[in-house]
Amino acid sequence: MKRLCTICARGGSKGVKGKNLKVLLGKPLIAHSIDQARASGLFDLIAVSSDSDEILAVAQDCGADLLVKRPDELATDQAAKLPVIRHCVAEVERLTGDSFETLVDLDATSPLRTPEDIRDAVELLERSGAGNVITAMPARRSPYFNLVELDQDGIVHLSKSPRNAIVRRQDAPKCYDMNASIYVWRRAALFGNESLFNPDTRLHVMPEERSIDIDSELDFRFVEFLMASGVNVVER
């Protein structure tokens, strides 16, 4: 069974300028995801997709096996994630002549994952027979208990109405925050569905300390602090 890892890193970033190449503990941010993919021991190829020649050059220096230049229409703020990953996979298969059964996308802005997290998510996909697997952490807030919305009249109400009154957060149905860290697909599911959520989508739960997605300077500093403190461990 052939497995491909994709890492998609756009050149433009509003929250953190030059985010994907910003140095984190002595190496570019994108290098951490490349290193984790390599350390997992799962992949026949690790491919990096970007609209930025600088990012692609750095990715090559950091050990990426294949570089994919992303077209401009897939490099805007409005570009959806699935078409970007599909383009990368299709280009890799065109360039190599190979077809990959298991496809894993690692978000370059989530460097706190471990190789074991990647292995666990892939194992869940291949063991369960599911079409895809996403990752998340236990939610701090519950739509059944303390996550609220305002209706058109400005009246506040719970985001989800429980069947029975809930007086303790611990009694609410378990909910999870997607952490944008690891996405795993079977090839047919990636190219055959337009939504990330399908009838057989499975969830791999990661702890909060390995689930931060860098979207601001504060996020970056927090991740840097956690990694320098040894909170995330390369191997468990």
UniProtKB/TrEMBL annotation:
Any one Gene Ontology molecular-function term assigned to this protein's record: N-acylneuraminate cytidylyltransferase activity
SUPFAM superfamilies: Nucleotide-diphospho-sugar transferases
Keyword annotations from UniProtKB, A to Z: Cell projection, Cilium, Flagellum
InterPro entries, per database record: CMP-NeuNAc_synthase, Cytidylyl_trans, Nucleotide-diphossugar_trans
Protein's recorded name: Flagellar modification protein B
Organism: Parazoarcus communis
Upper lineage: Bacteria, Pseudomonadati, Pseudomonadota, Betaproteobacteria, Rhodocyclales
